[in-house]
Write a structure and sequence with these properties.
two-stranded antiparallel ribbon
Length: 109
């Protein structure tokens, strides 16, 4: 089992997929990687009040998407002049497609 606050034990993407128990997670990661030709970078974030592991997808030094692993996300926080938004994906419906489109728009900015 992943310990979200243990910065000395980096989980694999597959372990994270097992932890989140959402079948759409690995599909989403695969689609981001295939569409944008990038790979995941799993990093431990200790710069905020919520210490956690993050999965980041970057292309040309620009972050396309960050998946934050934490049990509760209370509010959108600002850091480094950016805001993050949490989106719960449960299936491949319109929210999933909107997120893929939003990622494409951000990539072109």
């Amino acid at each position: 089992m992943i310990d979200l606050q243990d910065k000395n034990s980096c989980p694999t993407l597959e372990e994270i997929g097992e932890y989140v128990k959402n079948p759409i997670f690995m599909q989403f990661c695969s689609e981001i990687k295939n569409t944008y030709g990038c790979s995941e970078k799993i990093e431990f974030s200790s710069c905020s009040m919520e210490r956690r592991w993050n999965v980041k997808f970057k292309k040309a030094g620009k972050t396309l998407c960050t998946i934050e692993l934490q049990d509760i996300y209370h509010q959108t926080n600002e850091g480094n002049g950016q805001k993050g938004h949490m989106i719960d994906l449960e299936d491949e419906g319109s929210l999933y497609q909107d997120l893929m489109r939003l990622t494409q728009i951000c990539r072109n900015c």
